[in-house]
């Protein structure tokens, strides 16, 4: 789409000039939006611009010429920089076999694209890894600078992303199928968690709804659930309206994952305390014959007095603590365990009049971490110090207390007839209780026969899924989202999911968990070459430990050469795992 000049008279200040651009919305056609505000005609003349309209048209001609130049760039006096680091991501896709691309093209056949659809989806993934951002940015600045990548028009990118978003589960399934063929899938344990992404818009729609935001914002959000296999490789994702509860998603996603991937055996669900509820327990052990590992807050209201008392009990014959120490003999953590029958109550179906009571034999494991205890006590004392000042100067506002409200007693007193005054004081009993419970954590599992340290290790692998969300939000900039059509939003998150999965496979399979994913991002984004007028390339990459580790692992003798030929780069893109 081209740029053009828009002239308006919005106020008494006279003619106002803006550069507008055309863009394409799938199924809706051409749309226009402001690209750059130039200013008022008279103010531009006052700044020394003799003919503001001619000056503005000159800028627009330059932008339109740039659009054409990007499609078929020529080497001139200035060298051209290309990213070649994405050869690692290409090698990872290649490792999935030729059938992967064949199946993608078959699934996308209804699109009737006039280009190789598998190559298109892979190119979008490379662009998201190399320099994430809007689809316009990918079209203008990223894809043209990927060494050897095929160009696509902006309309093709928008239309293609919209198409894959209409049925994104199919593309997840194709990816899973070929990961399973290449590396196998360990599905005996599944790690599940949810997050959400905000949209900087005023109004809500069917999917972007206001709900509890992970960033504490008040914008409409979309929720995302993510499922990892036992190797911490992404297995599935789901998107849901931002005002929907996360807890029912655990049951639906596990059930869907098992049916999609042909999992006939038990799956041990590992999730944090936010997904621990009686209905999920019932679904796991009574409906699906699965298992679970959850954490349970030692500070929460759902912990019974008997459980809280057991957490704090000292050593005894029926209450034995076990110490785990590091190589220097320092205490890393302590744990103890018990097995018993525990009763739950829940409403099985929303239409049920009453709750169903059931019993589950569970193992409870309580751990104590001295480092965590010191950190939590510092946080509690800092919170109490702030509250003391607020109570002293009567600055308590209930709505502003947040989680710290539990440390404040608020008592309503009637004065002067029906007027109500709020009296505040510190809840010392709750403060002392939380200080005594600092550093403790309670794990609950249906796997009564498993060892405590085995359960502890399985639960603490959950950090990988939380880390995956951080990677999506930071390294891959999954938000803010620059599109608004639901299918295009889904397509955007599919591309981000593909990028995360490829990078996780690189980290865990290709480099055997010896190079953190962030270092792999840095290598890929930093390995750039500059084309010279003679047709060769100069390597711009900086020597780093990751750079050397990649070179040694893959046996790429010329990876660090300053001068590279086209043949050298072409050989780089033939790298195999």
Provide keyphrases for this structure.
alpha+beta, 41% helix, globular, four-stranded antiparallel β-sheet, 577 residues, nine-stranded mixed β-sheet
Helix content: 40-55%
Low-confidence stretches: 70-79
How would a textbook summarize the main sheet?
9 strands, mixed
Strand tally: 18
Pairing-aware structural class of the strands and helices? alpha+beta
What is the average of the pLDDT values? Answer: 83
Tally of separate helices: 20
Radius of gyration: 29 Å
| Strand content range | 15-25%
| Inertia-based shape | globular
Question: Major sheet: order of its strands?
Answer: 7-6-5-8-9-15-12-11-10
The rounded distance between the terminal residues' Cα atoms is: 40 Å
Molecular structure report:
The protein is an alpha+beta fold and 577 residues long. Among the domains are: 3-71, no CATH class; 373-437, no CATH class. It has 20 helices and 18 strands. It is globular, with a radius of gyration of 29 Å.
Quick rundown:
This protein has 577 residues and is an alpha+beta fold. It has 20 helices and 18 strands. The strands form 4 sheets. A 9-stranded mixed β-sheet has the order 7-6-5-8-9-15-12-11-10, with helices on both faces. A 4-stranded antiparallel β-sheet has the order 4-16-17-18. Strands 1-2-3 form a 3-stranded antiparallel β-sheet.
What is the element layout, followed by pairings?
Layout: E1 3-11, E2 14-25, E3 29-40, H1 41-46, H2 52-71, E4 80-83, H3 87-95, H4 98-107, H5 117-130, H6 135-142, H7 154-166, H8 168-183, E5 189-198, E6 221-228, E7 234-241, H9 247-261, E8 268-271, H10 278-287, E9 291-296, H11 305-312, E10 322-325, E11 331-346, E12 356-368, H12 370-392, H13 398-401, E13 408-415, E14 419-426, H14 428-437, E15 440-445, H15 452-460, H16 463-473, H17 486-510, H18 517-526, E16 528-531, E17 537-539, H19 545-554, E18 563-564, H20 566-572
Parallel strand pairs: 5-8, 8-9
Antiparallel strand pairs: 1-2, 2-3, 4-16, 5-6, 6-7, 9-15, 10-11, 11-12, 12-15, 13-14, 16-17, 17-18
């Amino acid at each position: 789409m081209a740029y053009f000049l828009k002239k308006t008279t919005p106020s008494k200040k006279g003619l106002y000039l803006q550069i507008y651009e055309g863009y394409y919305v799938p199924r809706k056609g051409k749309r226009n939006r402001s690209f750059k505000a130039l200013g008022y005609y008279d103010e531009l003349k006052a700044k020394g611009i003799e003919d503001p309209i001619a000056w503005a048209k000159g800028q627009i001609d330059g932008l339109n010429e740039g659009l054409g130049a990007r499609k078929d760039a020529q080497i001139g006096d200035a060298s051209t920089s290309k990213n070649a680091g994405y050869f690692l991501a290409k090698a990872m896709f290649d490792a999935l076999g030729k059938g992967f691309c064949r199946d993608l093209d078959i699934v996308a056949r209804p699109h009737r694209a006039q280009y190789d659809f598998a190559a298109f989806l892979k190119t979008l993934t490379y662009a998201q890894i190399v320099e994430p951002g809007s689809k316009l940015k990918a079209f203008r600045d990223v894809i043209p600078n990927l060494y050897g990548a095929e160009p696509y028009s902006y309309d093709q990118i928008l239309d293609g992303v919209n198409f894959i978003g209409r049925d994104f589960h199919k593309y997840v399934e194709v990816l899973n199928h070929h990961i399973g063929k290449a590396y196998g899938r360990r599905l005996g344990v599944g790690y599940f968690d949810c997050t959400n992404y905000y949209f900087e818009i005023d109004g809500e729609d069917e999917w972007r709804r206001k709900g509890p935001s992970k960033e504490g914002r008040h914008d409409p959000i979309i929720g995302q659930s993510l499922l990892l296999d036992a190797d911490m490789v992404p297995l599935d994702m789901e998107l849901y309206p931002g005002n929907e509860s996360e807890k029912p998603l655990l049951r639906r996603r596990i059930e869907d994952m098992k049916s999609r991937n042909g999992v006939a055996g038990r799956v041990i669900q590992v999730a944090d305390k936010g997904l621990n509820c009686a209905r999920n327990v019932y679904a796991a052990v009574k409906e699906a014959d699965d298992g679970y590992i959850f954490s349970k807050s030692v500070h929460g209201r759902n912990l019974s007095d008997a459980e809280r008392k057991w957490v704090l009990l000292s050593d005894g014959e029926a209450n034995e603590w076990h110490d785990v120490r590091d190589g220097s003999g320092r205490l890393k953590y302590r744990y103890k365990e018990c097995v018993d029958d525990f009763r739950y109550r829940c409403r099985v179906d929303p239409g049920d009049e009453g709750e169903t009571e059931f019993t589950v034999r569970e193992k409870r494991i309580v751990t104590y971490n001295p480092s965590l205890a010191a950190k939590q006590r510092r946080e509690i004392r800092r919170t109490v110090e702030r509250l003391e000042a607020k109570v002293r100067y009567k600055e308590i506002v209930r709505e502003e207390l947040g989680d710290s409200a539990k440390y404040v007693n608020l008592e309503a007193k009637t004065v002067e007839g029906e007027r109500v005054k709020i009296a505040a004081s510190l809840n010392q009993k709750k403060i002392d209780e939380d200080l005594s419970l600092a550093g403790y954590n309670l794990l609950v599992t249906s796997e009564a026969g498993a060892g405590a340290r085995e359960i502890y290790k399985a639960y603490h692998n959950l950090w990988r899924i939380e880390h995956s969300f951080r990677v999506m939000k930071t390294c891959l900039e999954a938000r803010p989202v620059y599109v608004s059509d639901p299918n295009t939003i889904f397509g955007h998150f599919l591309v981000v999911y593909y990028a995360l999965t490829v990078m996780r496979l690189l980290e865990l399979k290709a480099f055997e968990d010896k190079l953190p994913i962030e270092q792999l991002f840095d290598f890929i984004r930093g390995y750039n070459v500059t084309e010279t007028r003679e047709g060769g390339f100069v390597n711009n990459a900086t020597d780093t430990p990751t750079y050397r580790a990649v070179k040694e692992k893959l046996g790429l003798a010329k990876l660090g050469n300053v001068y590279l030929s086209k043949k050298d780069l072409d050989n780089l893109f033939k790298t195999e795992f």
